[in-house]
Amino acid sequence: MDFQVRARVSGRKNREIKGCRPVSRATTVIRKCPGAYAPGFTLTPASQAKTGLNCAKGASLVFTVTVCSLHCSLLTAHCLLPSVPAPLFTIHDLRFTIRAPMTLSLFRFLQLLTAGLYTGLLFADRVGVTPVRPQLPASSFVLFQQQLHIRFAILMPILLFTSLLSGLISLVLLRRELRTKTFLFTAVATLCTLIVIVLTRAVNVPINEALMTWQASSPPPNVMELWSPWEQIHTIRTIVSLAGFSSLLLAVLPARRA
Description:
The protein is an alpha+beta fold. The chain has three domains: 2-43, no CATH class; 54-94; 102-252, no CATH class. Helices cover 66% and strands 7% of the residues. It contains six helices and four strands; from the N terminus they run ββββαααααα. The protein has helices spanning 45-80, 91-99, 102-129, 138-173, 181-211, 223-252, and strands spanning 2-8, 21-22, 28-34, 42-43. α4 runs antiparallel to α5. It is elongated and about 60 Å long.
């Protein structure tokens, strides 16, 4: 393989290097030399980038050819001898795996992570805290919910909108696979996240804003009645979030093969 090398040549004439063909007659000479690097010569940045890209392409090609050859061998052996198990993948699967964009994997990971976090928070609050709230004195309830709201007022919107945005981007990247289970379950999970956001913004947020105006020392006399719609929507959005997260898990699970 020829490499482009650069040498600074002093004097009026360019030094002739055995096995090298000069490309430029300027003071900085670009030469093509076969084999290893000659002493005193270094690769240009363009040559280094091109050489690295060629090596990566070559390695990818060798890997693809090797796996394809293995697949064809297993398929042929399975046809001739039924006792030999059939290969567990197809050439289409291999091609999709090699060409799968890193962007899709990143946004699917973000959607799964954030959906799992906000679903876990909603589920833990619904199962562990909701039954306890009515048993608290009104002043203690107001103080407890105000402190809880301060801690989750920033975290929950970040998780919800990151999950929604990641899901929408994943759907755009999966637009050519409309009829696959991956696209369908990802769409269901994204829709569930959108429903949770709409319910939270329509009911829970206004009640939380009213909650922050209450005084723990003198809470409203009907505080639990005012809080009751929050708990009802909280139950609904918890169920919806669980359905969305379950759909997302089904979307990332590999398909079963017969």
